[in-house]
């Protein structure tokens, strides 16, 4: 409960914060805010903006430094000033170059790009700035036009000493560093055409460009040439080659090269370890690290191991991919021993490694220990919490990040926060983040765009998700999958399948998760034939072998549609060992169709797989109860007691005027609980007038009738709906999120309420969305 109230507190703060950024939203601000004292402090403050430093939004440095015109290029360093003036006075670049060349004997490569750059009126440069680096910057930020490229070639031909290898080297190096690998390789090839002999600095940069492009063909050619010119034992060349082969997926070739190196240095070792990590062979990476340590200890004391932070980062990345945290702990110990614990990148990777092996607590401790956090540290911590469903913590870290103000948030941060919003159904915060995304011009970013689609789907606004999806210029498999899953969750299986077909038509190849979404959509709507069709097609046509999730969906689909035997047969045919989701789906289906025999088989498997989940005991007890086997019901109850199992508390969230309210079963903690119960009483009377009779079957059959009615009356979703209705204007939609599945009785009651009050009520439970309207639910009572 403490976490829950903390959650609503942070949510409110963020909403207030974003509302201040967005004047359109500020009218929705709550006038009074109850709950935690910290929230009170914010709410009663005269000016809420004063609690937040003005947000520092990340901007690429270039954008910030763009000068309005060449004439405005002051103050600038001496040579730059001169160039600026000469450029401003004469539009002819060539004549400027002439003057420039006479008076300022800078390296020609520096000169020409300064001029191009100034002509583009892009930004102030000084003599120390490498022009090719700027070109790389321009290229990265897509400000690099064809005309600029033409100028570059012309000027390059005119001013660079093409007979000098070092000249070529610097050009290749700068192009590679600037991310223009194609140009770097072109320069390398031009140089070779002139029959110049490349030296040891030429190859590493050329090979790196091949790696960046995953161009194995050119990589092999470069390798051959390196052999021809006698650089096979050069450590930098061989490390670059190892990296190239690994990035191109040729791990064995990389390893052969590595084994042939007579005296490896730390760079060679790191390249090879990284190669294993990149090729999803974490065990291989860790084994190699062990070999490295053994080799090192053969020569000197282990404490004098020659290792750098780059190698440590590679090893830690491997740790994050193996299960079990003992390896990570071991390497962490080594990190401390070697004195790398204060290294920022090492810290960030360590944080991630602990999070991946499930120890969020230690991950957080590592984060807290990092002194000068960068955007990666903040973003990783937010993502860790968001991915693990800890939305409150994710929002808190984001709040701290904004407060801290040292690091600006960016696309990655906003994507992670959108994920947190999706988990908690915080539509208002989500909308504010969307607004921020538009302001920052990130809407077209495929990564952020997909997060927005996902957020709207999970916050119950599938139409808005569709609109956001349609606005995206570039869509990848994740974007399509998010929309398919969204439609599925809302029970719109036809739309989901339509989107899926459209995806195939646009030649985006569906992946493993896409098919999980497709099958789940079929399952939510009971489309058995379509389900079978895609289940078979995924393997035959798309070469994706069905995994646990696909079987889980199919068993759920078949079971709920009444094909229990087919579902059971499918489980027995599975190539992978069925997990608790698969058996759990069958057990739930047995409950619906009152099949005691299969229920017992499923439950037996479930008790072996997961002893701590009391949900299975309750389900089986209910199956027995339906069959009138009271002794077995009692047996289940005793078993649960002996295992010390308690039903996890159900809770529901409802967002009212930008504030999330949390309700537990029979909640009396809410400041307005008296009014809520009063309102609920009135609703119950109206419900009974239209013939509502509480349904008892969802309650474990061990309480007497009167108590059952009481338990049903105070289900958290009912309280949340009642509060939502009484606190919002007629005509608006009330949206409730429940952590468990909505029970049959609440489902019936809410259907009728939607008719009585003539309002739309949306409930997201742990499985799907229910849209209640005019006495009906979008799930068609099939859930
Ligand atoms: Zn209920
Ligand atoms: Zn429903």
TrEMBL record:
GO terms for molecular function: RNA binding; zinc ion binding. Pfam families: DYW_deaminase, E_motif, PPR, PPR_2. Residues 1-26 form the signal peptide. SUPFAM superfamilies: TPR-like. Keywords: Repeat, Signal. Residues 691-783 form the DYW domain. GO terms for biological process: chloroplast RNA processing; RNA modification. The keyword Transferase does not apply. The keyword Chaperone does not apply. PPR repeats lie at residues 164-198, 234-268, 374-408, 445-475, 476-510. Belongs to the PPR family. PCMP-H subfamily. This is DYW domain-containing protein. It comes from Rhododendron simsii (Sims's rhododendron).
């Amino acid at each position: 409960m403490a976490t829950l109230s903390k959650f609503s507190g942070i949510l409110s703060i963020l909403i207030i914060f974003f509302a201040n950024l967005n004047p359109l939203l500020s009218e929705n601000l709550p006038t009074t805010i109850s709950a935690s004292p910290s929230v009170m402090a914010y709410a009663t403050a005269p000016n809420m903006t004063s609690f937040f430093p003005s947000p520092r939004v990340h901007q690429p440095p270039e954008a910030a430094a763009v000068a309005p015109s060449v004439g405005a290029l002051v103050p600038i360093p001496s040579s730059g000033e001169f160039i600026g003036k000469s450029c401003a006075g004469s539009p002819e670049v060539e004549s400027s170059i002439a003057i420039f060349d006479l008076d300022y004997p800078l390296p020609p490569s520096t000169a020409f790009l300064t001029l191009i750059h100034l002509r583009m009126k892009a930004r102030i440069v000084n003599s120390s700035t490498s022009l090719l680096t700027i070109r790389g910057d321009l290229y990265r930020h897509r400000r690099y036009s064809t005309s600029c490229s033409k100028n570059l070639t012309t000027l390059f031909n005119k001013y660079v000493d093409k007979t000098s290898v070092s000249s070529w080297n610097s050009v290749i190096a700068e192009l590679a560093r600037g991310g223009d690998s194609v140009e770097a390789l072109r320069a390398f090839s031009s140089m070779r055409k002139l029959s110049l002999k490349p030296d040891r600095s030429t190859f590493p940069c050329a090979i790196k460009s091949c790696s960046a492009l995953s161009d194995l063909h050119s990589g092999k050619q470069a390798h051959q040439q390196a052999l021809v010119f006698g650089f096979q034992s050069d450590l930098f060349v061989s490390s670059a080659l190892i990296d190239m082969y690994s990035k191109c997926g040729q791990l064995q070739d990389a390893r052969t090269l590595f084994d042939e190196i007579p005296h490896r240095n730390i760079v060679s070792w790191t390249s090879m370890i990284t190669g294993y990590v990149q090729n999803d062979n974490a065990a291989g990476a860790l084994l190699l690290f062990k070999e490295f340590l053994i080799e090192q200890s053969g020569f000197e004391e282990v404490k004098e191991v020659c290792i750098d932070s780059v190698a440590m980062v590679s090893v830690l990345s491997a740790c994050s991919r193996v299960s079990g945290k003992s390896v990570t702990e071991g390497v962490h110990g080594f990190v401390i021993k070697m004195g790398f614990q204060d290294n920022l990148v090492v810290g960030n990777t360590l944080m991630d490694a602990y999070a991946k092996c499930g120890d969020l607590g230690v991950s957080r401790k590592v984060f807290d220990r990092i002194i000068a956090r960068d955007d990666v540290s903040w973003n990783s911590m937010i993502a860790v919490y968001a991915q693990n469903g800890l939305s409150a913590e994710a929002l808190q870290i984001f709040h701290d990040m904004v407060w801290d103000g040292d690091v600006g948030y960016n696309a990655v941060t906003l994507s992670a926060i959108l994920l947190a919003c999706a988990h908690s159904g915080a539509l208002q915060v989500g909308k504010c983040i969307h607004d921020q995304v538009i302001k920052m011009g990130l809407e077209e970013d495929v990564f952020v765009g997909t997060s927005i689609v996902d957020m709207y789907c999970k916050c119950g606004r599938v139409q808005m998700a569709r609109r956001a999806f349609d606005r995206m210029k570039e869509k990848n498999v994740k974007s399509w999958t998010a929309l398919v899953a969204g439609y599925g969750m809302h029970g719109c299986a036809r739309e989901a399948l339509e989107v899926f077909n459209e995806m195939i038509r646009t030649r985006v190849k569906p992946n493993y998760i896409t098919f999980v979404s497709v099958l789940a959509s079929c399952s939510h709507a009971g489309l058995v034939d379509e389900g079978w069709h895609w289940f078979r097609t995924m393997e035959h046509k798309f070469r994706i072998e069905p995994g646990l999730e696909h079987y889980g969906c199919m068993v759920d689909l078949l079971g709920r549609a009444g094909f229990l035997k087919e579902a059971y047969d499918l489980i027995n045919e599975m190539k992978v060992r069925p997990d608790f989701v698969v058996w759990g789906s069958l057990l739930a289906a047995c409950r619906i169709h009152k099949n005691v025999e299969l229920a017992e088989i499923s439950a037996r498997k479930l008790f072996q797989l997961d002893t701590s989940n009391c949900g299975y005991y309750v389900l089986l007890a209910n199956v027995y109860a339906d069959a009138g086997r009271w002794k077995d019901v009692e047996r289940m109850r005793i078993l649960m007691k002996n295992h010390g199992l308690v039903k996890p508390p159900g809770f529901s969230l409802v967002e009212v005027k930008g504030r999330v309210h949390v309700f537990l079963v029979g909640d009396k903690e809410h400041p307005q609980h008296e009014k809520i119960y009063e309102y609920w009483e009135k609703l119950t009377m109206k419900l009974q007038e239209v013939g509502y009779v509480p349904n008892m079957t969802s309650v474990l059959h061990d309480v007497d009738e009167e108590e059952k009615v009481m338990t049903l009356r105070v289900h958290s979703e009912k309280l949340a709906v009642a509060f939502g209705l009484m606190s919002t204007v007629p005509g608006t939609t009330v949206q409730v999120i429940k952590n468990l599945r909505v029970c049959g009785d609440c489902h019936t009651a809410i259907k009728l309420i939607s008719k009585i009050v003539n309002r739309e009520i949306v409930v997201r439970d742990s499985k799907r969305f229910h849209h209640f309207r005019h006495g009906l639910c979008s799930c068609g009572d099939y859930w």
